[in-house]
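Structure (tokenized):
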């Protein structure tokens, strides 16, 4: 017996309709905001993530699935969607087209981390990227798209926002952070001691309780914003208010990826028993240039589909059940089964959801099976019916039956 790899999960046929529901809502939301789908490879050159995600991030230092291919090239299963979308934007010259370039993706992503509730080694994301627009209006539109998605899914969430400035004002803030944390270094975790030297901003993102207690009193980035970044943040807040999206400012939001600049945001579930971030994103104006493209502003977000489904389940969101067959065709013997097969094919060609027996069950067993799969009608074809060119149709809800000519079957069931 070969078992599923640790940290992965089968989505069974009995559960896949829930995933399809979330994905369909995501696609509907994307269409509403004029976002076009982009599909990038599941694996990329490792350098893309080292340069794009950042070599100080936990993803790059601890969590990537990296291997050598037969050409001795270092390849990585993508741990997130933004870097691949940016690579495609540059490589395919999308910057020379109509801007902004607005796109979305629904992808599998891979991170080698400890499996836990809502976190798997293979997981799935719905992500949005908007390339080419620098104004705070675009930040607000990205937030509005995420807010629309979450509300369509029936989730109760709170939006938290922050600004982490630009490289110019962040330099002074990093110095202030280092000065603050210097007396506390001995009490910080191993990772934070490394972050202290390489990327002090990431100290605020640590989940270790000891580190969280220390950084509670750390300086706030908002106090160090340059005039341009402060104006951008104020404008961003104004656009959210114009769109009717409520928010709270959380100076501790920094995001775990190195490429973010200025606006960062998170949507957190507010339902009892379902606390946790369900969607996060922000602006990353330097990433396209960092990966070899022309300087291009960008903003985006991502939501984990597994996490969304968990929170929807925890909070009792009703996901519509999948459609059930309009009619189940039951044949009594070999010749009748052939006619049922022929009729089933004709019904399906004409858009009728039809099913039939593949297990050579008795008619009684076929009725039981039809009931289990929720068929609205059962059409029985026996020897007499076959001779008459008819079928006996039973309404499974009312128990009523009527005789219907086989030649009228398509029109009959199209109207049911």
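Design, position by position:
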């Amino acid at each position: 017996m070969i078992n599923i790899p640790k940290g992965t999960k089968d989505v069974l046929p009995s559960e896949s309709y829930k995933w399809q529901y979330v994905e369909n809502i995501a696609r509907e939301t994307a269409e509403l905001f004029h976002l076009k789908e982009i599909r990038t490879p599941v694996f990329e050159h490792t350098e893309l993530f080292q340069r794009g995600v950042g070599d100080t991030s936990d993803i790059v230092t601890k969590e990537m699935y990296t291997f050598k291919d037969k050409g001795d090239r270092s390849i990585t299963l993508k741990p997130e969607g933004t870097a691949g979308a940016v690579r495609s934007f540059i490589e395919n010259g999308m910057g020379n087209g109509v801007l902004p370039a607005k796109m979305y993706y629904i992808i599998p992503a891979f991170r080698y981390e400890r499996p836990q509730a809502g976190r798997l080694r293979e997981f799935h994301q719905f992500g949005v990227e908007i390339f080419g627009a620098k104004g705070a209006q675009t930040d607000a539109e990205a937030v509005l798209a995420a807010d629309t998605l979450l509300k369509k899914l029936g989730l109760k969430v709170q939006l938290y926002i922050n600004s982490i400035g630009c490289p110019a004002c962040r330099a002074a803030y990093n110095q202030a952070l280092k000065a603050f944390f210097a007396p506390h270094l001995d009490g910080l975790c191993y990772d934070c001691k490394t972050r202290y030297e390489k990327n002090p901003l990431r100290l605020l993102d640590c989940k270790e309780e000891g580190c969280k207690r220390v950084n509670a009193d750390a300086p706030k980035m908002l106090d160090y914003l340059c005039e341009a970044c402060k104006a951008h943040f104020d404008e961003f807040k104004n656009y959210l208010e114009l769109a009717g999206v409520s928010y709270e400012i959380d100076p501790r939001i920094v995001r775990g990826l190195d490429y973010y600049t200025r606006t960062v945001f998170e949507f957190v579930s507010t339902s009892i028993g379902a606390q946790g971030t369900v969607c996060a994103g922000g602006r990353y104006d330097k990433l396209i240039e960092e990966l070899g493209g022309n300087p291009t502003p960008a903003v985006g977000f991502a939501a984990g589909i597994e996490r969304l489904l968990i929170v929807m389940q925890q909070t009792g969101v009703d996901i519509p059940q999948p459609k059930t067959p309009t009619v189940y065709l039951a044949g009594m013997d070999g010749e009748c089964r052939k006619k049922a097969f022929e009729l089933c094919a004709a019904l399906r060609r004409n858009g009728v959801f039809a099913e039939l027996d593949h297990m050579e069950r008795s008619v009684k067993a076929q009725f039981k099976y039809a009931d289990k799969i929720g068929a609205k009608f059962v059409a029985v074809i026996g020897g007499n019916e076959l001779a008459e060119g008819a079928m006996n149709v039973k309404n499974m809800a009312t128990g009523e039956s009527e005789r219907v000519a086989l030649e009228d079957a398509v029109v009959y069931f199209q109207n049911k």
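Reviewer-requested clarification: The first helix runs from residue 16 to 32. The two ends are 46 Å apart (CA to CA).
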